[in-house]
Amino acid sequence: MAIVIVSSIVAIAMTIPRKKEPFVAIGILNEEGKIGDYPRNLISGKSIKLNVFIDNHEGEASAFMVLVKLGSKGNIPNNTTPLDSKPIWNYTIVLNDGSNITIPVELNLSGEGRDIAIVFELWEFNSSEWVYTGRWCHLYVNLTRGAPHG
Question: Which CATH class is domain 21-144?
């Protein structure tokens, strides 16, 4: 009898439609479009090739903008505040619900520094203005004027 009751409860639970939580995701992929094996040591003036991935599951089509900015350790965005830095690259796209896209990104950084944060922020258009979604990712790199070390 207990097995019948448990089986009935499990069967009912499996047939009840679950409300999906809407979300949007952003991620950095390497030049080959894969996670990992990112360039870490860059030469100033030489391009870096990456990809950015956006995945829309908000329940409707939405306009998104990716802004790439430069930060540093301790100077990156959080879930409520974007990085206070001028964008060095941007891309705008409309994605249908359930759609995703991988966008090639080529950046040319100059100068020198350690632990420079290449920050990818995701913004969304809300019918009147662009709004920071609180979604972002970053990659730390070292930038040298000559041949990279290590």
Answer: mainly beta
Q: Which pTM does this prediction carry?
A: 0.84
Q: Is 122 exposed, middle or buried (0-12, 13-18, 19+ CB in 10 A)?
A: buried
Bridge partner residues of 50 (DSSP): 105
Distance CA(122)–CA(139), nearest Å, equals: 15
C-alpha closest to that of 107 among 71, 70, 82, 75: 70
Length of the chain measured in residues: 150
Please state, in angstroms and as integers, the Cα–Cα distance from residue 83 to each residue in 20, 89, 121, following that order: 30, 14, 8
Query: pLDDT tens digits, residue range 48-96?
Result: 999 999 999 999 999 999 999 999 999 999 999 999 999 999 999 999 9
Tokens of 71: 């930060």
Residue 59 φ/ψ region, left for φ over 0, alpha for ψ in the -120 to 50 degree band, beta for the rest = left
User: What are the residue ranges spanned by the domains of the chain?
Assistant: 21-144
